[in-house]
Design goal:
mainly alpha
Length: about 260
């Protein structure tokens, strides 16, 4: 396909998307109006199913299949990173050298680490009750672990971050979401349909399968982000070590 033909295809595709977008916007409710059919139905469904956080009800109940796709995108990105950045037989890896950390930074990061981790777990556990959920809480929890890298050094982070276990947990989070959805099939319902009691409104056990799916997402996101950062940080360590070795070799060559 020539460059000119590709540009024509791009132009026609863009015009088609613009026409569909304009048609969709033309049917939107008036800004500031009182007619919000989708929002009203979503809120009504969330209250009916005892899910206090309407967003979580939409993500893990009304549109749970779409959320599975979003989770799978992250899982695929992690899997691709693990495959592409894995250490080959020809690659050597030297242990990273310790770096000096300013005492105020060390104190603040060590103090913030447990607080941040607790906040991340809280956001995951209360995703069906208050703003947040597995996606947001998973990111917070993964960030908390890397405060040890900021406070101490990379070796300290490695001691609490066995990458292999996090890779297994990442896959387990993805599988748990699928298994909860598949369990609905055993009851004769559709995939990812709620099959548990809705419980008491505004409690941790409310929302049916929403807390379970939310927890699965939290595990997958937290472990997936940890694995992603581990692969990229390991790659940066190897590059830095290689530069250091090249510098030493050049110095020795100059001395000779």
């Amino acid at each position: 396909m020539s460059r000119k033909l590709r540009l024509w295809v791009l132009l026609l595709g863009g015009l088609g998307v613009a026409a569909l977008f304009a048609a969709a916007c033309g049917e939107l409710p008036r800004w500031g109006g009182t007619w919000h059919p989708y929002g009203d139905r979503a809120v009504h469904a969330a209250l009916t199913r005892h899910t206090a956080n309407t967003i979580s009800s939409v993500n893990f109940d009304q549109r749970a299949f779409d959320t599975l796709g979003e989770e799978s995108i992250l899982f695929g990105a992690v899997l691709g990173t693990v495959v592409l950045l894995r250490q080959t037989r020809e690659e050597g890896r030297l242990p990273p050298q310790p770096a000096r950390v300013a005492p105020p930074v060390r104190r603040y990061a060590l103090l913030a680490l447990p607080v941040t981790l607790l906040i991340g777990l809280y956001v995951i556990a209360h995703g069906q009750l208050s703003p947040g959920g597995g996606f947001q809480g998973g990111i917070v929890a993964a960030t908390a672990l890397h405060l040890l890298y900021v406070a101490v050094d990379y070796r300290a982070l490695e001691r609490i971050r066995p990458v292999g276990l996090y890779e297994v947990a990442d896959a387990a989070g993805e599988a748990a979401y699928l298994l909860v959805g598949g369990a609905a099939l055993l009851t004769g319902a559709a995939f990812l349909t709620n099959f548990l009691p809705y419980g008491t409104f505004n409690t941790l056990s409310s929302g049916g399968t929403v807390p379970l799916l939310n927890a699965a997402i939290g595990v997958e996101v937290a472990c997936g982000v940890v694995v992603l950062l581990a692969r990229f940080l390991d790659q940066a360590v190897e590059i830095e070590d290689a530069r250091r070795d090249d510098g030493r070799a050049g110095t020795e060559a100059g001395e000779r």
